[in-house]
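Anyone up for a design puzzle?
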Protein backbone atom coordinates (compact mmCIF):
# COMPACT_ATOMS: atom_id res chain seq x y z
CA UNK A 1 0.00 0.00 0.00
CA UNK A 2 2.74 2.42 0.98
CA UNK A 3 4.73 1.51 -2.14
CA UNK A 4 1.70 2.08 -4.38
CA UNK A 5 1.08 5.46 -2.78
CA UNK A 6 4.70 6.57 -3.39
CA UNK A 7 4.62 5.40 -7.02
CA UNK A 8 1.31 7.21 -7.55
CA UNK A 9 2.71 10.43 -6.07
CA UNK A 10 5.83 10.21 -8.21
CA UNK A 11 3.76 9.62 -11.33
CA UNK A 12 1.54 12.56 -10.45
CA UNK A 13 4.54 14.83 -9.94
CA UNK A 14 6.16 13.73 -13.19
CA UNK A 15 3.04 14.25 -15.29
CA UNK A 16 2.10 17.58 -13.75
CA UNK A 17 5.62 19.03 -13.65
CA UNK A 18 5.04 21.10 -16.75
CA UNK A 19 2.16 22.91 -15.10
CA UNK A 20 4.58 24.43 -12.58
CA UNK A 21 6.76 25.94 -15.31
CA UNK A 22 6.87 29.73 -15.22
CA UNK A 23 7.78 30.00 -18.86
CA UNK A 24 10.51 30.20 -21.41
CA UNK A 25 12.00 33.37 -22.74
CA UNK A 26 14.25 33.90 -25.72
CA UNK A 27 16.80 36.43 -26.89
CA UNK A 28 17.53 37.43 -30.48
CA UNK A 29 21.33 37.31 -30.23
CA UNK A 30 21.77 38.75 -33.74
CA UNK A 31 19.75 41.81 -32.72
CA UNK A 32 21.80 42.19 -29.54
CA UNK A 33 25.02 42.06 -31.58
CA UNK A 34 23.61 44.66 -33.99
CA UNK A 35 22.32 47.08 -31.34
CA UNK A 36 24.58 46.69 -28.29
CA UNK A 37 27.21 49.47 -28.48
CA UNK A 38 30.02 47.30 -27.10
CA UNK A 39 29.26 44.56 -29.64
CA UNK A 40 29.32 47.15 -32.44
CA UNK A 41 32.67 48.46 -31.17
CA UNK A 42 34.13 44.96 -31.09
CA UNK A 43 32.78 44.17 -34.56
CA UNK A 44 34.40 47.34 -35.91
CA UNK A 45 37.72 46.41 -34.29
CA UNK A 46 37.58 42.91 -35.78
CA UNK A 47 36.73 44.35 -39.21
CA UNK A 48 39.70 46.73 -38.91
CA UNK A 49 42.03 43.86 -38.03
CA UNK A 50 40.82 41.86 -41.05
CA UNK A 51 41.26 44.89 -43.34
CA UNK A 52 44.77 45.41 -41.97
CA UNK A 53 45.71 41.82 -42.76
CA UNK A 54 44.34 42.15 -46.29
CA UNK A 55 46.11 45.47 -46.88
CA UNK A 56 49.40 44.03 -45.66
CA UNK A 57 49.02 40.94 -47.86
CA UNK A 58 48.20 43.08 -50.90
CA UNK A 59 51.20 45.37 -50.27
CA UNK A 60 53.54 42.41 -49.83
CA UNK A 61 52.25 40.82 -53.01
CA UNK A 62 53.04 44.01 -54.96
CA UNK A 63 56.45 44.15 -53.30
CA UNK A 64 57.15 40.53 -54.30
CA UNK A 65 56.05 41.21 -57.87
CA UNK A 66 58.54 44.05 -58.14
CA UNK A 67 61.42 41.99 -56.74
CA UNK A 68 64.27 41.55 -59.17
CA UNK A 69 65.49 38.08 -58.28
CA UNK A 70 63.82 34.81 -57.31
CA UNK A 71 65.75 34.84 -54.03
CA UNK A 72 64.41 38.30 -53.22
CA UNK A 73 60.86 37.17 -54.06
CA UNK A 74 61.27 34.14 -51.81
CA UNK A 75 62.58 36.25 -48.93
CA UNK A 76 59.64 38.63 -49.25
CA UNK A 77 57.18 35.75 -49.44
CA UNK A 78 58.67 33.98 -46.41
CA UNK A 79 58.62 37.15 -44.31
CA UNK A 80 55.09 37.92 -45.46
CA UNK A 81 53.77 34.48 -44.54
CA UNK A 82 55.31 34.75 -41.08
CA UNK A 83 53.82 38.21 -40.49
CA UNK A 84 50.39 37.25 -41.85
CA UNK A 85 50.26 34.20 -39.57
CA UNK A 86 51.12 36.37 -36.57
CA UNK A 87 48.41 38.88 -37.50
CA UNK A 88 45.89 36.07 -38.03
CA UNK A 89 46.68 34.72 -34.56
CA UNK A 90 46.15 38.18 -33.08
CA UNK A 91 42.87 38.43 -34.98
CA UNK A 92 41.68 35.04 -33.70
CA UNK A 93 42.70 35.87 -30.12
CA UNK A 94 40.83 39.17 -30.22
CA UNK A 95 37.77 37.51 -31.76
CA UNK A 96 37.73 34.82 -29.05
CA UNK A 97 38.23 37.39 -26.28
CA UNK A 98 35.46 39.66 -27.56
CA UNK A 99 33.05 36.76 -28.10
CA UNK A 100 33.66 35.43 -24.59
CA UNK A 101 33.19 38.87 -23.05
CA UNK A 102 29.99 39.55 -24.98
CA UNK A 103 28.59 36.13 -24.11
CA UNK A 104 29.34 36.70 -20.42
CA UNK A 105 27.60 40.10 -20.47
CA UNK A 106 24.56 38.80 -22.36
CA UNK A 107 24.24 35.83 -19.99
CA UNK A 108 24.42 38.16 -16.95
CA UNK A 109 21.79 40.50 -18.42
CA UNK A 110 19.63 37.52 -19.39
CA UNK A 111 19.80 36.16 -15.85
CA UNK A 112 18.56 39.50 -14.49
CA UNK A 113 15.67 39.55 -16.96
CA UNK A 114 14.85 35.89 -16.32
CA UNK A 115 14.61 36.50 -12.57
CA UNK A 116 12.61 39.73 -12.97
CA UNK A 117 10.09 38.08 -15.30
CA UNK A 118 9.93 34.87 -13.27
CA UNK A 119 10.95 32.71 -16.23
CA UNK A 120 12.48 29.26 -15.96
CA UNK A 121 14.97 29.74 -18.75
CA UNK A 122 16.00 32.08 -21.58
CA UNK A 123 17.22 30.49 -24.79
CA UNK A 124 18.42 31.94 -28.08
CA UNK A 125 15.78 32.74 -30.66
CA UNK A 126 17.46 30.42 -33.17
CA UNK A 127 16.91 27.38 -30.91
CA UNK A 128 13.16 27.83 -30.43
CA UNK A 129 10.55 26.53 -32.79
CA UNK A 130 7.54 28.46 -31.54
CA UNK A 131 6.28 30.26 -28.48
CA UNK A 132 8.21 31.82 -25.66
CA UNK A 133 8.56 35.37 -24.42
CA UNK A 134 10.82 37.72 -26.41
CA UNK A 135 13.22 39.19 -23.83
CA UNK A 136 15.58 40.86 -26.31
CA UNK A 137 14.54 44.46 -25.58
CA UNK A 138 14.80 43.95 -21.83
CA UNK A 139 18.19 42.32 -22.18
CA UNK A 140 19.42 45.21 -24.32
CA UNK A 141 18.21 47.66 -21.65
CA UNK A 142 20.18 45.72 -19.03
CA UNK A 143 23.30 45.81 -21.21
CA UNK A 144 23.31 49.59 -21.68
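Challenge accepted. My sequence:
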Amino acid sequence: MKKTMIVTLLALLMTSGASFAAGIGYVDYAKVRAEYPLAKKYAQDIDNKAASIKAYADAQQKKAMSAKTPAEKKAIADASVKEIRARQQQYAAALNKYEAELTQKVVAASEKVRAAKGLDIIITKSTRVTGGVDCTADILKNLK
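A detail worth pointing out: The helical segments are 2-16, 29-35, 37-65, 70-117, 136-143.
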